[in-house]
Amino acid sequence: MCGRTGLSLNKEQLRCVCSYKNKKKDSFDKPEWLHEHNDGKEYEPSYNIAPTDVTPVLVSSSNYKNIAGSRILKPMMWGIIPPWHKGNYRTNNLSTNNCRIENIKTSKLYNPILLNGGRCIIVVEGYYEWQTTVKNKVKQPFYIYAPQEEHIKIDDSSTWQNNYDKKSGWKGVKLLYIAGLYNIWQDNDVIIYSYSIITMDSSSTLEWLHHRMPAILETELQKEAWLDIENVNPDMALSYLKPTVLLSWHQVSTAVNNSRYKSNDCNKRISKENKKCAQSTITSWFTKVDKRKSNDKDNIPNKKNK
């Protein structure tokens, strides 16, 4: 499964890192960023992204006019809103942040979306998974990400040395590209783009941690096939999705267990020695937040006394 991700890059950095080869020009193109209102919800870089947050998603430009390249980046909300839902989108009561690959073709929600070309790629620096093979009172989270060059540390952006060149493309931190499905939901004047992450049985690399994993697209060929909704039919596209073996991971603080905690230490590697120190800092942070909320409530004027 996949219930929390991380992405700290801004819009322009994401356009660079998502650059792709233009075979006709023998150079790299950056996908255009197409803004979407999404009921006022915007993409905000975060080290702890949770369902209902808005994140950048790669889609084919074939359904959009006046786009020069073949790919676009579009902000979408995590968790597909069922097309039949009416009224407040927050009350659809379905858990749609993940969709199981085994059930897509029989699902009355996901199968029509797949057949209608709703394939997308969710871009993340990494995702969090909680160990389920050990029975603990508090589940231990891990941060999972693409293997990096020797000098690059995923939890230290000062080591990334990011660079983009039209001739050679992106050089720097490597991201994960996760296959997903997206849908456009509308009710009166509210229009929201939303997506679900496709999951599958874990590979031998991660089965010790969790029995499910997201469908990660490792190669450019996989990305091209998944996005090419005009020439690659749904069955063929699904055949490109395989459990990923080449991954890296490290243990992180249980602070990420709370989706409200967005600090840049969420993805930091943590050892047994510094667990106590980290937990003390996190407890202090939440105490300050709670005190501030309490003070805000105390300062609200009493209408009866006016």
From TrEMBL:
Domain of life of the native organism: Eukaryota
Molecular functions per Gene Ontology: lyase activity; peptidase activity; single-stranded DNA binding
Swiss-Prot/TrEMBL keywords: Covalent protein-DNA linkage, DNA damage, DNA-binding, Hydrolase, Lyase, Protease
Keyword Translocase in annotation: no
UniProt xrefs under InterPro entries: SRAP, SRAP-like
Keyword Hydrolase: yes
GO BP annotations, alphabetical order: protein-DNA covalent cross-linking repair; proteolysis
Family, similarity comment: Belongs to the SOS response-associated peptidase family.
Protein name: Abasic site processing protein HMCES
